[in-house]
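Record type: ASSEMBLY
Status: queued
Input:
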Amino acid sequence: MKHYLLSVYQPDGPPPEPAILDPIMRDIAAVEQEMKDAGVWVFSGGLHAPSTATVLQRKDDDVLTIDGPYVEGKEHLGGFTIVKAPDLDAALEWGRKLATAIQALPIEVRPFQDSIGG
Amino acid sequence: MPTAPTVPSEEIERIFRAEYGRSVAVLVRVFGDIDIAEEAVQDAFAIALQRWPADGLPPSPAGWIITTARNRAIDRLRREESRDDRQAQAALLHARDEPVEEGPVRDERLRLIFTCCHPALAPAARVALTLRLLGGLSTAEIARAFLVSESTMAQRLVRAKGKIRDAGIPYRIPREADLPDRLRAVLAVIYLIYNEGHTASSGERLDRADLGAEAIRLGRVLVELMPDEPEAQGLLALMLLLESRRPARATADGGLVLLADQDRRLWDRDLIDEGQAVVRRCLRRDDPGPYQIQAAINAVHSDASAVQDTDWRQIVRLYDQLLAVSPTPVVALNRAVAVAEVDGPEAGLALVDALDLDGYYVFHAIRADLLRRLGRNAEAAAAYAAAIERTDNAAEQEYLQGRRDALK
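Status: finished
Output:
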C-alpha cells in the first residue's frame, strides 16, 4: 500500500465569508469521514495563514530563526490530507472527491517515497 | 536434416519491432517495471542476433522473445538481488507472484496502452511513451519525428517512466465507469500521432519516422484489442481514409494540394475500401461518436470521383451530427465550408464570421476563399495575409501566398 499527500493550494488573503466557507467545510468533513470509513485516512488538517510560519535554517554551527513563510507567492499550502491507496488511480479518486468538495481550489496529489508506517 | 534457412539481421530487427509492444507489455506485467521489461527485450534481441542466423526462426518468435527476455531478466535480477538491490528484490517478488501461463501468451498490450495514455502524464509524454513502448520506436526515432533533440526525448521518457513507477500509475484496464474518458485519452494520443505524421508529410522534407503508418498500426492494435468499441473503429477508419489521400496531398516539390484540387486518381483505393468498410460496420452498429462521424464525412468525400460529384448535403447533415456531439468552433468552421457548397459562399461566410477563431490560420484561409468567390478581392487578400501570418508550416505558407497572388 502506498501513501499519497493530497494538498490544497489557496490564494493569499482572508478566507471567504462563513456563508460560503461553512458549507465547503461541511463537505470536506464529509469526505474525510468517508475516507475514515473506508480505512484509507491517515491524517488531515488545515493550516493557519503563511504569515504565521517560522523558518529555521542551519548556518554554520547555528540554526537561524526567521519570520516565514519560506516561499513567497500568491498562493500557499492551505492544508493537506494523507491517504493510503493501492495505486495512483485510487488516490486520484479520493483527490477528486476532495476537489469536488473544495470547489475551485486545486488539489495536488503526490506519492510518498516507500511506505510510511506500514 | 535440412539446414535452417539463414535469417538476415534486418528480418530479426523487423520481427522485434513488430513484437516489441506485445513482449514489453507481458514483461511489465511479470516484473511490474517498465525499465526491466525494456532491458530484457533488448537482451533477447542481442541473443537473437547471435542465434537466429544459424538456428533459423523459432516456431513462435513472440513466444521465444518473451521466454528468453524473462529468463534473462530473472538471471540478471538474481545477481543484483545478491548485492542487496531492493528494486531487484521487488521485481523478483513480483515475478514470483505472476504465474507463468501455459499455452499462448496473453496479450497485455491494452493494459500498457492505458498506462502510457494515463491523464496524469503530460500529453507529450503520453505520445512518446506510446510510440516507444507500444510502437517499438527508438528514442532517436521519436526525437526526430517530433523535432526535438534525442537527449530531450530521452529525458521526457525517463521522467514519464519515473512518474509511472513512483506515483504508482497502475497497469490496468480502467473500470467501466472510467473507461469512456480513459479511452478518449488513448484515441486522442493515437490521432495526435497520426496528425503529426500528416502535417509533416506536407511540410519540409525531413528524416521523420512514418508516424502516419505507425498511428494506423496502433489504431489496428486497439481495434483488435477492443473490438466492441465503435470509436476505436471510427478512429481507424478516419485515419485510413485520410491516409488514402496522402499520394495526392502534395506536389512533387512538397507543395500542399487541398482536397478540392487533388487528382483523385492518385487516391489509394485499397485504403478507401478498407476505411469505408469500417464506416459501414459503424453505421450498422449505430452508436456514433466524433471519430465515427468524421470518418463518415471522409467516406462521403472518398465516394466522389470528382469534387463536383461530392454529396455536400450529406456532409452538412453529418457535420450537424458532429456539432451536436462535439460543439467546437473548429467543427462549426468545417460545417460552414460544407454549407457554402450547398447554399452558396454568402451563407458560408455568414457562419464563418460568427466564429471566434482569430488565432487559427485555417479560419482566415477559409474566409479568404469565400470572399474571393464573392468577388470581394481586397478583403480576400487581407484574409490570406492574416492566414499566412498565423502558420509556421512552409508548404501551407507557400500555398496561401499562391492563392493571394492569384487574386490580382
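Annotation: The two ends of chain B are 78 Å apart (CA to CA).
Annotation: Confidence is low (pLDDT under 50) at residues 201-207 of chain B.
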